[in-house]
Amino acid sequence: MNLYGLIVFHHVATTGSVTRAAELLRISQPAVTAHVRNMAAELGMTLLAPKGRGILLTEAGERLAAHAARLFSLEQDITRDLAAFRDGSVGKLRIAATSLPANFLLLEQIAAFKQAFPSVAVTLDTRNANDAAEALYQYKADIAVIGGSGEAREGLTRHVLLEDELWFVAAPTHPLAGRNVSLGELFMEPFIMREEGSAARDRLLALCRIHGAAIPETAIQVSGVHESLHAVAAGLGVSFVSSLEAKRAIAREELTRVQVQGEAELRNPIVLYTRDEEMLPPAAQQFMKALLQSIQHEHTSF
Asked: Which GO terms describe its molecular function (predicted)?
């Protein structure tokens, strides 16, 4: 059955006029007549009967018109749904991210995105850096946001979101709290150490190598960002952490920065990855655009 012919017949049936149907469909009257004639021939039934200057639906025509109305309604639903998908108002947004951006950067951005696009289904999958990239390779994620080295990855395009600062932090009651000290003096203090293999631990060890300093004594080893911050707040020692991780605790006066004299600065790039030469799904495009604008605004407002 010719589906477009059904749509043409729907317009004839609802307007009661071949002329008006032709105007709405922007085709010629003979074309409308031909579609209706072909539909009647295909079904082997008379669909229209003359009525003065208008038309009258036969019983077969009325039954066909009811089906055609449902088809026309479905066509409109399809058009609306795909238009909404095209502008990112509906669909899915799948994000793979490492712990730092997942917990301290993306959640607020996702909340703002959901306010603007409440019908988009969002998933945030927290993984280590390699697994987050693999999720992108395997089409299990639309974008990957990775904190750490920000290395180039084959087949993926890098978008550097920000260069996160790394801070030394201590409890407000710590003897070095609020002071400006040398790196050597700081490394005499016990440190909260992250687990082996963690990016935070690797960054601290790299700093020791760069400055030829001995690795500080370990007060306690913990697994996870939150555990590290809680251990510092409890007064167990100093830690070297992301500013994204620490700034809220510092604002609440649970932690304080320890300033270091000389060159002791390392930065932690937060990088968004997409697949090379592939267009993002519309919802992911909208999220990425909003994320980049938000970060740019935040970092140009100071």
From this structure: DNA-binding transcription factor activity; transcription cis-regulatory region binding
The count of structural domains within the chain is 3
pLDDT in tens, 9-26: 999 999 989 999 999 999
Indicate the burial class of 76 (C-beta count within 10 angstroms; 0-12, 13-18, 19 or more). exposed
| Judgement on whether residues 45 and 24 belong to the same structural domain of the protein | yes
CATH number, residue 121: 3.40.190.10
Residues with Cβ within 8 Å of 182's Cβ and at least 6 positions away in sequence, in order, are 260, 261, 262
Tell me the pLDDT tens digit for each residue of 160-180.
998 888 899 999 999 999 888
Give me the mean pLDDT over the 285-293 stretch: 94
The structure tokens listed for 254 are 């649970």
What's the predicted TM-score (pTM) here?
0.75
Cα distances from 104 to residues 98, 109, 197, in angstroms, run 10, 10, 20
Residues 54/43, Cβ–Cβ less than 8 Å: no
Joined together, the tokens standing for residue 85 give 């998908």
